[in-house]
Amino acid sequence: xxxxxxxxxxxxxxxxxxxxxxxxxxxxxxxxxxxxxxxxxxxxxxxxxxxxxxxxxxxxxxxxxxxxxxxxxxxxxxxxxxxxxxxxxxxxxxxxxxxxxxxxxxxxxxxxxxxxxxxxxxxxxxxxxxxxxxxxxxxxxxxxxxxxxxxxxxxxxxxxxxxxxxxxxxxxxxxxxxxxxxxxxxxxxxxxxxxxxxxxxxxxxxxxxxxxxxxxxxxxxxxxxxxxxxxxxxxxxxxxxxxxxxxxxxxxxxxxxxxxxxxxxxxxxxxxxxxxxxxxxxxxxxxxxxxxxxxxxxxxxxxxxxxxxxxxxxxxxxxxxxxxxxxxxxxxxxxxxxxxxxxxxxxxxxxxxxxxxxxxxxxxxxxxxxxxxxxx
Length: 376
Ligand SMILES: Nc1ncnc2c1ncn2[C@@H]1O[C@H](COP(=O)(O)OP(=O)(O)O)[C@@H](O)[C@H]1O
Ligand SMILES: [Mg+2]
Known about the structure:
Blueprint: H1 7-24, E1 28-31, E2 35-41, H2 43-50, E3 57-63, H3 77-87, E4 94-98, E5 101-105, E6 110-111, H4 123-137, H5 157-173, H6 177-186, H7 193-200, E7 210-212, E8 221-224, E9 227-230, E10 237-239, H8 241-252, H9 256-272, H10 282-307, H11 315-332, H12 344-358
Antiparallel strand pairs: 1-2, 2-3, 3-5, 4-5, 6-8, 7-10, 8-9
This protein binds adenosine-5'-diphosphate and magnesium ion.
């Protein structure tokens, strides 16, 4: 039923009512990587205004101020959801978009991150993921919001990979060198790491571009009555479907066997659905995207380890942060062709030096340039 109010007045009223429900503070609060989410009972008034059933619940999404580490080509998740929820009916709709805040339908259920652990992803679950990837790949790309002007052409997989590499280099590595450059150097990440990666990975097979979620991991998958719903579409992009499979496998932390199984199920499901062309060059190019995931992740992992240190860290804090860095660098060793990797002692020393220069003695406890980054 259309609202009797003009659109802006309607939005403002919905926003005010949602805010007042949030401030009452009786809903659940779910903190994710990029947003803080308040689960609110809508009540009759809001439900009527939003044209949804009374007593439904909704999720008010408020962005957190976090370090930018992955590309976002569509600033409005609401626009993406409008397309996605038309085709994947289980995905909760965006009920109202207030600019940076938004109100989403709330799907009851538990995130997989609360249910299962790293070692018990079974065949059924993998088949469900494969099915999800096929259904997402079927969403007509003509319905998607416009891409940035410099976006690689459909099928130009190599340019797509290189766009991702350039993003890591410019927006994650270079953009943070003022604050973290000395730390990157001290833990032996070569300054030209991404340039070398790009040079070494050319000649990718062409695959048609599709809508990609790019963040399908346990915390973004809700299960209820054995049905899965993938939430959190704000990092969706348009590109090579192998990037989707690679980000999924790395972020799920699959071991070798699980990766092989997931890849086989993905390829089988795509072929069965008539999308053979999405699997072209799979054997050669999937490992390239997996390597990219580990390579790019070294910068955010090092920054988060440093930012996660308390204002007055003790030896244990430094060692825990140092271990996080060692793990990230260990995983990036082959992808970045690192000859020297730091041991724990060296990493701890590097963190101490960074902390000394950037945090210690400053009343705010924030990095020196006060760039408002937060650890996730
Ligand atoms: N419908 C839901 N059911 C169960 N848990 C949810 C639901 N929506 C969100 N969550 C929980 O809240 C977390 C953050 O929500 P999400 O939408 O992924 O935000 P973020 O963008 O911050 O990651 C999720 O990882 C999940 O654990
Ligand atoms: Mg999330």
